[in-house]
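Ticket opened by: R.M.
Priority: normal
Category: complex prediction / small molecule

The reporter submitted a protein together with magnesium ion and asked that the result be attached to this ticket for the collaborator who will pick it up next week. Submitted input follows.
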Amino acid sequence: MAAEHAQQVREGFTALYGTEPDGVWAAPGRVNLIGEHTDYNDGFVMPFALPHTAVAAVALRHDGVLRLHSADMPSDPVELRIADLAPETADGWTAYPAGVVWALRQAGHEMPGADVHLASTVPSGAGLSSSAALEVVVALALNDLCGLGLKRWQLARLCQRAENIYVGAPTGIMDQTAAACCQAGHALFLDTRDLSQRQIPFDLAAQGLRLLVVDTQVKHAHSEGEYGKRRAGCEKGAALLGVDALRDVPCDGLDAALDRLGDEEEVRRLVKHVVTENRRVERVVSLLESGETRAIGPLLTEGHASLRDDFRISCAELDLVVDTALASGALGARMTGGGFGGSAIVLAEADDVPALTKAFEDAFTHAGFTAPRVFEAVPSAGARRLV
Ligand code: ADP
Ligand code: MG
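Result attached by the on-call engineer:
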């Protein structure tokens, strides 16, 4: 399927620009297995790559012009002068790839110009990080074509700068690192403080397991403001506790920390989630490394309860997925991503998948919600050159 997608994008490039691309690259979307809202607290995350990818055909040009086109957006190519790129000036989707070129240039790398045509199978706005896939695929292509020799983690950093500063979205480092660094059959254990990482075996099929992504297709309007509030509350918690970040509160020091926070009820809840969530990531890592994949199920479910009750970023649709999954025999389930909509993940025995899929449909119909989109997430490869 990847080869077919690559061929289509290559042909699209030629039809659009009238020349052959210099190459074709891919970068995946991701699901975060566990470690939610820990990234801006210097904590642990554990994403894995989806088989869904953004694929870009790219050719260098030498006149300082950047042309951008997406097969998924019905418009003519957008033409920009690289020397004129400036944060928060670009409109719409082109801000992501343009931001990458801007960030590379800001880091001192000469950008001669490029024609880009891309197409993505990563669902957009579903919490599966279609934006990082776009950024990383362009960054990797330019790294290769311009011979920059940047490492994967460095590309991820530059893509994060593109999204934070150029696009103006305050995201952590997880999404870009996942797209750049994940490996097939593995989840990526990432320490967001020092960016150290470890590939953790996560070959579900070999153990008769499946991981379902249930995209509720809802996005509740207040999500961005709520994200900002959670972030500010976590920073307040760290300040009150006298630590650089909540990552520095050990799990066995949680009760003492909560005592110190006194009647700061809201902050106490946020701190409790972040501290216990970091611990859950470490426990999932050790279970997976000892081959006890089924045993991570209850930790996923605990993580959901913490996000729902303490961090308070779930919603009726996400809770319905989790409750339905558990009632229908799943090993564990949790919301994933920023919250207030987007997707949930469900760990299940392979044999139970048809019954679960039906149960989600029935439960959503009964509740009067739009049917969710359910698909299987196979831990897949990170960014790579296809052609
Ligand atoms: P997520 O990363 O969770 O999917 P974001 O809001 O961060 O959600 O990113 C979605 C945005 O990324 C879209 O609004 C669009 O600007 C851009 N995008 C995603 N996929 C494509 C695509 N195939 N073509 C062009 N732009 C895309
Ligand atoms: Mg995004």
